[in-house]
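FAQ: What does the model actually see?

It sees only this:
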Amino acid sequence: MYSGDALDSRTHMTDPQDRYRAPALDKGLDILELLADQPTGLTRAEILKAMDRSPSEIYRMLERLVARHYVTRSAEGDRYSLSLKLFVLGHRHPPVERLVSQARPAMEAFAKAAEQSCHLGVFDRGNLTLIAQVNSPATWGLSSRLGSRVSLMDTASGHVMLAFQSEERRAEMLAEHEVLEGELPVSDTELLAMLQSVRDRGYWEGDSPQAHGITDLSMPILGPDGHALAALTCPFIRRIDRHVVADLETVRGLMLAAARGLSLQ
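And it is asked to produce this:
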């Protein structure tokens, strides 16, 4: 007879992603994720039913989560809820700093391989703010000033951020938008068509709306829900001298790899 953990290991051992499984850790994370969707908490019986696990497995794990203050038990002792510990841990390291620290190595590797500059933008107060910038290692290139605000409506980064959102979130972002200096007007019809094109392709590619001779490439950094957390953008410059560099197709592939590596999917 197999125990629950042994049976789980036997069932999943052919899956490459489960090569280094930790069943006890998985159970703890399953409980946390389950309770995260329950504002009033759950009883032990409800947790058992939802997880389809043996009472002894869940009891031990719940007791450890309570002891480590990730889960709280009601005064009556029959309901379990998430504590604020995960919230506190998440805010020890500000989200933007965490995103930049994870993205910078990938951005630097991209810039070195592509010999192009790139920047990372996030939605902020109705437009986008550039939170990271890596210059091309070549003798010249196009870069954007760190901390610059760029338009949500007429930039590659903005279109990527809007395209990969839920309809509700997109409406909220558009409602917050404030026109920036130099922003080109975009009709609702044009914007919807552009966003659909970006979704179909999976990224933005085209002539820069701000400067001649630049091809903008912009890729979404996706969260677990498939919505864009940030936009990774390269203002591609095509060289015409004898210096051999990556062409647009190669640079596109390098950027897609970087964006997918940073996405949480």
